[in-house]
Structures are given as C-alpha cells and as structure tokens.
Amino acid sequence: MDLMGMMGKMKETQQRMEATKKRLDTVLVDEQSSDGLLKITVTANQNIKSFSIDNTLLEDKEQLEDYLILVTNKALEKAKSINQAELDAVAKMDLPMIPGMEDLFK
Q: Cα–Cα distance between 86 and 18 in angstroms, integer?
C-alpha cells in the first residue's frame, strides 16, 4: 500500500473511532448492589448517568458510601470493557497490519 493510501486509511479509521466514541455515549450499562438497594447507570464512555438509592441506605452514611464505591466501580469496569472491545474492533477492522505491530491487536 502506498503512503497516501495508508494515510487515507488512517484518516478513515480515525473518523470511525470518533463515530464509535460518540455512539458509545448512547450505550448504557446498568449495575446494582447484590441486594438491589443501589443502582447505577453509566455510558460505555464511563460517564455516570443516574443513581437510584433505596431510602434505607440513607440511614447509614458509611454503608451508602461503601455501596457507591463498589457499585460504581463495577459499572465503570463493565463500561470500560465494552468501550475497549468496540474501539479495538474498529482498529482491527480498518488498520492495515504493519509488520512487527501484530501484537498490538491481540
């Protein structure tokens, strides 16, 4: 592939990556505590959209804080995984394999 063709392909890939990132703002990830008292929704781009907190958690600040940390971290980890898989798929699909760089896409 010539240099101009490769540059054009890289520009297309960058545009697809940006479109994918924008689409991931609309992909919602829901997570909740094991007892269902706290629920969180985040985007696949790891932006918090909402919390739902049962009133019983409002009586114990320390417990609420623990729930917020645990459930938020679980939701963000799921979102990160989805985000990475989507962006990796775009990169693998569009970028030509350059000798010596195959390991980057495993």
A: 11
Q: Residue 88 has what DSSP assignment?
A: H
pTM for the whole structure: 0.73
pLDDT tens figures, 10-52: 788 888 888 888 999 999 999 999 999 999 999 999 999 999 9
The residue length of the chain stands at: 106
Q: Which residues contact 101 (CB under 8 A, 6 or more apart)?
A: none
Report the alpha-carbon distance of residue 72 to residue 51 in Å, rounded.
9
Q: What is the DSSP string of 5-26?
A: HHHHHHHHHHHHHHHHHHHHTS
| Contact of 53 with 64, CB cutoff 8 Å | yes
Indicate the DSSP class of residue 63: H
